[in-house]
Amino acid sequence: MSEFSTTDQQMLDSKTVQASGAPLFDDKGYTSFAWLQNMDMTPYDFPYINQLLVQGYRSWLQQSNGISWINEEYTAVFNFIGVRVAGREEDDDEDLDLVERCCISREMEVSQRKLRDGSLAFVYMVPILCRNYKREPFAALRFTRPAQHSVSNQDTFLVAALHFKSCFYSKFEYIFMEDILWMQNRSDREGRRRSILFQIVKRMHDKIDVEGVLDEVFGSIAYLFPHVDITLYMSQDRHSRNPQVKPLLLHERDEDVCVRAFMKGQMAVNEPVGTQDEITEIAIPLRGKQGVYGVFHMILPSGADSMKKVDVELIAMMADTAGTAFENAKLLEQSNVLIHELRLINELVQRLNQSLKLNEIFEFAVQELLKMFMADFCCIVQLDQDGNCFKVMSSNVESLRLESYPLEDGFAGLIRLTGEPVIVSDYRKDGKISSHFMDATDSQSLMAVPMKTSGTPKGVILLSSKLPHSFSYDNYKMLQMLAPHIGLAVTNAMLHAEVRRLANMDMLTGLYVRHYVDQIIQQHQEKDFCGSLILVDIDQFKQVNDTHGHQTGDEILKSVSNIVRSATRDEDVCARWGGEELAIYLPQLGVQQALEYAEKIRYRVQHETEPQVTVSCGIAEWNWLDEQISIESLFYRADMALYEAKNEGRNRIVVDHVANV
Questions:
Q1: 462, 497, 532 - which closes a domain
Q2: Distances from the Cα of 502 to the Cα of 52, 496, 509, 580, angstroms
Q3: What's residue 7's pLDDT?
């Protein structure tokens, strides 16, 4: 059976001609609207077509007028989940079961039931399928016929269902075409607007001065909307030859439409209320990427239709373009200053990156900042490791070096709380914050900016002068540009020092690694006259791992390492030699003193570890009278002594034979 209704099929078979005289259909039966007939719904659309089903149902009833068994009394339409959306209500549970069955089988389902009035009737549920190749059921149509009027040819219901489907898709295509036409009209209107805007923007960008750009804006608006009175209120101290450009005095305008547009950076409208004689005011900000520079104030003629006569969006786009052009002109004026500042920054950064030593970076930064801003005093403070106080890292004021200050002290404390830079023109007149730095240097002008790490202030740069009003706003901005580079150089130096420390550190035990001990022993052998080496090995450590697990073994290794570290001096070097072996170098000590330390370690390990383990130790020494002084010889002799301690039964200390001699 055809997917189209009878009317649709006749239309397909006919040779309809368009108004232009061209045939609507070609010889193959395709039409210029064939794509529309191929448009269909997807299962994602099914939950949203209830209203469309109702409209199709009403149209179907209207077109079937005169057929006695097609009316709202004997029919109903259900959506894809079995909910009745139009028609007579019957037994919901039985209807739901029928809808599910017919949607699954995609065939008409028939049942017999008693109606609410007690009469017996046949119910025919016909699935309504999509017209695409998948033919998913999106609705079901119910026909109810009294038992005495049963239909012998059930194809009648299928034909009626196809007619309903045709009515539904007529509504579907109507809505679809309506949306397309609306989008087309909107696209045409947008195309005309963009064409006008393109011409205006092109003329604006042909201008290289601010006055030319503003004249172009005024001229374009006057040409397009001659009935609009427009004024530009500028927020900057800029004198213009154009009488339509005036200063924006915020303190004199209270909360009018221009102030609202300037403060929020958005268009503001003050429409009339009530009478026809009141005017409509529109304020559109002149803004660029860096801020709002002014406000276009437009006064529309009185009347309720005044807003309809003006394309406000077009004017807003023109204002945005003018704002960008104005900003570009300002940037052009400042280009020489910026080039000079960038050259200074480049030189400073290059010199800062030449060193990775923290003290050198701080000292260099202080000296360069003093010369660059012709300041009298400079001080760089930084939070200590615990973040409990500010510590002076560098300053040209000797009395302030290595001093510490509370977190809330002075301008550094203020910047830590707010994260914002500070400029003070006259410290004595300002008097709001007490600063030890300003008092100690008897300064009156100050610039202070934060050095941030991951957005958080970790330090502060303070520059001061004994004279008031010594620093300009350009100096203030320049220092803000330099601060991140100085902070980055400081962070890099600190990270480099931390990486070097971690590279020399064993992560499990917290002791040094073997290559670091080699370097330290070599340095001591070049300048000292003697030294001793203790090698410590945990006895039966493999058995500990096998019995208690490797995690317990790691804990034992850390416990022994902590005992070794706490039992030795600060100048002694403790390292993880490899696996469960530890090494301790004791500079300027002989074997007898080393033996005392080794015995202390052996005793504490035996009595303080859980589960209990023991250690064996081998000791060797060197002195300046030895024929051969080398790291390899010292480690070899200590290792042989340790090997002997293991062979003699473990949990003991053996001293190298050369040392005994």
A1: 497
A2: 70, 10, 12, 20
A3: 37
Residue with the two structure tokens 């409208």? 269
583 touches 516 (CB < 8 A): no
Q: Which residues contact 344 (CB under 8 A, 6 or more apart)?
A: 372, 478
In the numeric block, which tokens belong to residue 282?
Answer: 């529109």
C-alpha 524/C-alpha 630 separation (Å) is 11
Model confidence pLDDT, tens digit, residues 584-626: 999 999 999 999 999 999 999 999 988 899 999 999 999 888 7
The DSSP secondary-structure symbol of 307 reads: G
Task: Please answer whether residues 139 and 162 qualify as being in contact, where contact means their C-beta atoms are separated by less than 8 angstroms.
Answer: no
Q: In the chain, count of helices (H) and strands (E)?
A: 21, 21
Helices (H), 468-590: 473-503, 514-527, 541-548, 550-567
Q: 73 lies in a domain?
A: yes
Pick from 543, 556, 177, 486: nearest CA to 344 = 486
Q: Of 351, 384, 387, whose CA–CA distance to 369 is shortest?
A: 351
> Using an 8 Å Cβ cutoff, are 368 and 351 in contact?
yes
Among residues 635, 394, 599, 429, the alpha carbon closest in space to that of 520 is found at: 635
Number of structural domains in the chain: 4
- Domain shared by 45 and 166, yes or no: yes
Q: What is the CATH number of the domain that holds 430?
A: 3.30.450.40
- The DSSP bridge partners found for residue 535 are 583, 618
Q: Are residues 96 and 173 in the same domain?
A: yes
What pLDDT is recorded for position 497?
77
- The per-residue pLDDT for range 324-345, each reduced to its tens digit, is 888 887 777 777 667 777 777 7
Give residue 538's identity as a one-letter amino acid code: I
Query: What residues make up the domain containing 238?
Result: 210-331
> Residue 198: what residue type?
F
Distances (CA, A) of 389 to 274, 283, 361, 368: 64, 50, 21, 26
> How remote is the C-alpha of 333 from its chain's centroid?
34
**225 domain-assigned:** yes
Which parts of the chain have pLDDT scores under 50?
1-31, 304, 661
Least Cα distance to 633 among 620, 646, 618 occurs for 620
Distance, CA of 110 to CA of 124 (rounded, Å) = 5
Look at residue 17 in the predicted model and tell me its pLDDT: 35
591-608 and 550-567 are packed helices; what angle lies between their axes, rounded to 10 degrees? Answer: 140
Distance CA 251, CA 259 (A): 9
Give me the catalytic one of 109, 216, 327, 580: 580
The token pair at 497 is 């020092």
Residues 152 and 273 in one domain: no
252 is catalytic: no
- Do residues 575 and 583 make contact, with C-beta atoms less than 8 angstroms apart? yes
Quickly list H helices, 238-311: 250-253, 257-264
Q: How many CA atoms lie within 13 A of 461 on its CB side?
A: 28
Could you tell me if 78 and 140 are in contact, meaning their C-beta atoms sit under 8 angstroms apart? yes
What SS3 string covers 645-660? HHHCCCCCEEECHHHH
User: Residue 242: CA atoms inside 13 Å, Cβ hemisphere, count?
Assistant: 20
Sort strands 292-300 and 653-655 into parallel, antiparallel or unpaired.
unpaired
Q: Are 493 and 540 within one domain?
A: no
